[in-house]
Amino acid sequence: MDRKEHVNRRVILHLDMNCFFASVEQAHNPDLKGLALAVAGDPKARRGILVTCSYEARAFGVYTTMTVGEAKRLCPQLVLIPPDFEKYRQASQAVFDILRTYTELVEPVSIDEAYIDITAIGGLEDALGIAKDMQERILRELDLPCSIGIAPNKFLAKTASDMRKPMGITILRKREVHKVLWPLSVIEMHGIGKSSAEKLAQAKIQTIGDLATADDLKMKMTLGKRGLRLKERANGEDHRIVDPEASAERKSVGSSTTLAIDETELEPCLAVFQKLAEKVASRLEAKQLAGTVISIQIRTAAWRNQSRSKTVLNPLYRSNEIYTEAAQLFRLHWDGEPIRLLGITVSNVIPFEELHEQLSFDTFERHDKEVSMQKLVSRMNDRFGPGTIHKGKQ
Questions:
Q1: Residues making up the binding site for Mg(2+)
Q2: CB distance 71 to 38 below 8 Å
Q3: Structure pTM?
Q4: Domain 250-384's class?
Q5: Could you tell me which CATH number the domain at 178-234 has?
């Protein structure tokens, strides 16, 4: 059997935890069950952003990325809880541990979702039974709900898991793509955001069907090589394998440097962090990754090593945001001792393709412009050499 034939016979599950952070909070505190609940970056600030919300809250029109003030106006009884990332990481690990009791072919792609290749343990014949058993075990053992998509490849499995929430199981076959997906607007397709949808609309591509049947040259001119890949997805094609090592390989991206002298002044240290942030951002962009945990490394003149880290709500990959977080950590934790080495690491990374950044509407336009600028800087550095061009501080 050649690789392509094997790929076409694969059975892939995509497991997506439902309202994960809110569900974990409800599992830890049963008194929260049935309540309109939201996890917010800063529950006390009316402009704080909701990280996630329960289905009870969604019934009032509350949604993720809404500000606390907006959510409270829609649902005055909304219960707000600050995020507890350590609690969520432990719950995530427990979910993945359950999945690995079925097969080692489990690829976590974020804290609350994973792909599972069940081809060798039952295939399509037993797929529904396996998915139901996984879903019931996770609910019974961890008190956490999830939805599962079943398909011959990653893209269709991911699409299927979004079709029925909460606690849904959906099978999506390649032959059903033209009937199920093609009539939908391109913005509903996994991997297409607002900016890409606007570019496609300018090219008279409105539906997933339009995308699937578009001319290759037109797609390349509209979205570059990514356009051709999206066209493949729209036709139900996706040859990516489930790789258990992928998450380990992309676990972290970092950079460090030994200083020319033992530094005792703040500003020179911050200048070093600026350069390190640019290097880390460049490496993340090259690997098409973003991460939610940032760490700084400090080695003193006395060779005392220390590391300080922070978990952020929105995945980091832009140099200015990496620098801002690193500088904040440094100011908070540096005790003035002479410094020999500094470093920055971004970890808990995920591919851009799986990126679900929490953005409020008033920051979306700024975000799009910064992404475009970052890509331009990256292209110029590829052409003229690393470090030739970089973004200035604001």
A1: 16, 112
A2: yes
A3: 0.69
A4: alpha beta
A5: 1.10.150.20
